[in-house]
Write a structure and sequence with these properties.
With about 140 residues, the protein is α+β, with helices and mostly antiparallel strands. It has four helices and eight strands. The protein has one domain: Molybdopterin biosynthesis MoaE subunit (Aldehyde Oxidoreductase, domain 3). It has a four-stranded mixed sheet with strand order 1-4-6-2, sandwiched between helices. Strands 5-3-7-8 form a four-stranded antiparallel sheet, with no helix packed on it.
Length: about 140
């Protein structure tokens, strides 16, 4: 398991290649990479977090995913600091013997990261700056788990 909360950029393709190596016993690798959207004239996104607390929270949910699904490995990367549209902001990868477990665990992790991971986001655009509020649809996505 690898959990990384970092201010440095990452290359999703490189991460997938590294994650896939050595998993010859796994039949499925599922990956998701989230990018900063530039919709609404967004020019910059700044993400804050509490070091230590954030990593512990993400590790706990990744361990829960491993308990719920037959996973061989989990990768979660999440950026913090200033980001611009097009930057990779996060990545989830799961490895499992079968695709159903890999897909479901990846979706579970993404839903958690979107709604409950302890990050605070501030958007900058044509109308100034504004903290990003939680969205009902993100919270609703968690109810299926």
């Amino acid at each position: 398991m690898k959990i990384a909360v970092q201010d440095t950029p990452f290359a999703p393709g490189d991460e997938v290649e590294a994650f896939t190596k050595g998993h010859t016993e796994m039949g499925a690798i599922v990956t998701f990479s989230g990018l900063v959207r530039g919709d609404g004239g967004l020019t910059r996104l700044e993400i804050e977090h509490y070091p230590g607390m954030t990593e512990r929270a993400i590790r706990a949910i990744a361990e829960e995913a491993q308990d719920r699904w037959a996973l061989g490995d989990v990768l979660v990367i999440h950026r913090y600091g200033p980001l611009v549209p097009g930057d990779p902001i996060m990545m989830v990868a799961t490895a499992a013997p079968h695709r159903k477990d890999a897909f479901e665990a990846a979706e579970f992790l993404m839903d958690y990261l979107k709604s409950r991971a302890p990050f605070w986001k501030k958007e900058y655009g044509p109308n100034g700056e504004d903290w990003v509020a939680a969205k009902d649809e993100d919270e609703d996505a968690l109810t299926r788990w």
